Amino acid sequence: MTLPLLGTGRREVAPGAVHVPGWLDLDAQRRLVTACREWARGPVPARSAVLPGGHPMSVRTVCLGWHWQPYRYTRTADDVNGDRVAPLPDWLVRLGSAAVTEAYGDAAGDGYRADTALVNFYDADARMGMHQDRDERAREPVVSLSVGDTCLFRFGNTENRSRPYTDVELESGDLFVFGGPSRLAYHGVPRIRPGTGDPRTGLTGGRVNVTLRVTGFPDA
Ligand SMILES: O=C(O)CCC(=O)C(=O)O
Ligand SMILES: [Fe+2]
After folding, report:
1. Is the domain covering 15-213 a CATH 3.40.50.300 domain?
2. Which part of the chain is the Fe2OG dioxygenase domain (predicted)?
């Protein structure tokens, strides 16, 4: 299947879901990796969130702005060490706004102010099952940035976890934005492609993914 090309390198995977390959240059990727490493150390360390059935997720996650645990947001990381998560830095908020403009064109990102980021660390065997991002109250787009190993990203429909879906290879530096009619689409990461990343990003293995979101919860 050929996906519609929206402009240089932009592909609409589903209405409101846009993939922009190679959006972050190597330098931006490197800076993002350095920042993610720092956030993973604390004040709330990266951890595998435990699902309600008792199983830990295979990805390790650290949150900024708001802390996410299955399936809610809080200011303090009550399932980790009780500390308040690090604030979402302004440069990342601005990057989110630029990403929305890149994906949708015009000045679409002007009013976009993310207030949380989930930073996911994938090793070669990590996966993420099909899910919706629906713990936010707001329905602003989700902005996803990837660095390191390529992954298979499965972008589905809003009804259920199964077909129809579109498989996308998310490579290092890629941007993926999903909003509008695709905001509540199921999506997941069935596999990582070990050894595909460029060590010059600062990652010698694995994959880092940052999703920026607007929770819609009032500032505390
Ligand atoms: O790693 C990815 O590309 C997706 C991450 C994701 O879906 C999430 O954090 O909710
Ligand atoms: Fe998600």
Report:
1. no
2. 113-216
What is the SS3 assignment for 61? strand
What is the spatial distance between Cα 49 and Cα 76, in angstroms, rounded to a whole number? 14
Whether 174 and 20 have beta carbons less than 8 Å apart is answered as yes
The two most distant CA atoms of the chain are separated, in Å, by 47
List the one residue out of 172, 102, 111, 105 whose CA is nearest residue 143.
Answer: 102
| Entry pTM | 0.96
Atom number of ligand 1 nearest to Cα 61:
9
For the chain, which residues make up each domain, given as ranges? 15-213
CA–CA gap between residue 63 and residue 170 (Å, rounded) = 21
* Rounded Cα distance, 105 and 101, in Å: 5
User: Is any atom of ligand 1 closer than 6 Å to the C-beta of 172?
Assistant: no
Torsion sign, CA atoms 196, 202, 203, 209: negative
Nearest ligand 1 atom to the CA of 209 is 1
The annotation status of 19 as a binding-site residue, yes or no, is no
Ligand 2 centre to CA of 137 (Å) is: 15
Residues lower than pLDDT 50 in the chain: 1
Closest CA to 143 of 169, 193, 108, 191: 108
Q: Is 0.95 exceeded by the ipTM?
A: yes
Query: Which atom of ligand 1 sits closest to the CA of residue 59?
Result: 1
